[in-house]
Model the fold of this input.
Amino acid sequence: MEHFFVLTIIILGIMVILCLYRAVFSPTIMDRIAAVGVIGTKTTLILVLLGIYYKRIDMFVDISLAYALLNFIATLAASKFFRLRKSITPGTKFLKDREAGK
Done:
């Protein structure tokens, strides 16, 4: 049974690397935010699986809950930033006004 958890952690780690590639090289900012959210979710799951593997589920669940909460707050902050900015594409009126000092 321990081999199953190790294999699952390795597969999730590979999936995190693929999502990291998507977060860095995606064409739009919304794709990047979604990829970072998926990375946070997979990391939370990896932490819980590590807790099961090391037989310290109580400690790792606390850590994973704190990490999931931080991931959620970061997603809300990013969405609020882009809501206030009124656009998600570079080179828009907001950036031109900001460079002009308005």
Residues 57-85 form the longest helix (29 residues).
